[in-house]
Design goal:
By secondary structure, this protein is an alpha+beta fold. It is 28% helix and 31% strand. A hairpin with a 3-residue loop joins strand 2 (13-20) and strand 3.
């Protein structure tokens, strides 16, 4: 079994933010779409995605300038374009649905240059001063660990993402969700619950 770092997987909406060396922060969106990160683009995004309206404000307020500082000053990030992946969620978010009056947050879980996704060790080293996914476990990806995550032996709601590989050329990721999250999906989505599973 290979060694890995397991990060908590949060139950929210996956959003990406794109920075360019010349343009600065210029685009953002969900997994399936992309908008300009300007007044008009934000308005279009908000119209297309009710419930996610707070995301761009949180990003601009809490992340944009500090992340740009890292990209411009750290020699590991001398690339023309970098994408930051975040989860947007509140305490009562579930399967991508958000409660309007719930306080929301953004949390970084991956950073990708135009060449590759940053190795998990480097990610922790370079971005731990930001709100990033919590490290739940470091060690071998064993059957026991998978079982313990499924049985909620770790303090996670949805599950974990395990990331490993010796370097950027052989990175791998495995998603493990809890049985309690599976039950919640089955109660809410009945026949369609597997669309929200692993």
């Amino acid at each position: 079994m290979e060694r890995c770092i397991a990060f908590e997987k949060y139950d929210g909406t996956n959003l990406h933010w794109v920075w360019n060396f010349e343009l600065g922060w210029y685009a953002f969106g969900t997994r399936r779409d992309r908008f300009d990160l300007d007044e008009q683009g934000i308005a279009q995004f908000n119209a297309a995605h009710p419930g996610l309206e707070e995301a761009s404000d949180i990003f601009n307020r809490e992340f944009a300038s500090a992340l740009e500082g890292v990209f411009r000053e750290n020699k590991n990030y001398q690339y023309p374009e970098i994408t930051v992946f975040t989860e947007f969620f509140g305490m009562n978010s579930f399967a991508g649905m958000h409660k309007q009056d719930d306080p929301k947050q953004l949390l970084i879980f991956d950073v990708q240059t135009d060449k590759y996704i940053i190795h998990p060790e480097q990610f922790i080293q370079d971005f731990s001063k930001f709100n990033i996914a919590r490290v739940v476990y470091r060690g071998k990806l064993t059957g026991k660990f998978i079982h313990d995550v499924r049985e909620s032996k770790y303090d996670v709601n949805e599950g974990v993402i395990c990331k490993g590989g010796k370097n950027i050329n052989n990175l791998w990721m495995v998603k493990i969700k809890t049985y309690s999250y599976q039950k919640k999906l089955q109660q809410v989505f009945t026949n369609d619950w597997q669309s929200y599973w692993e």
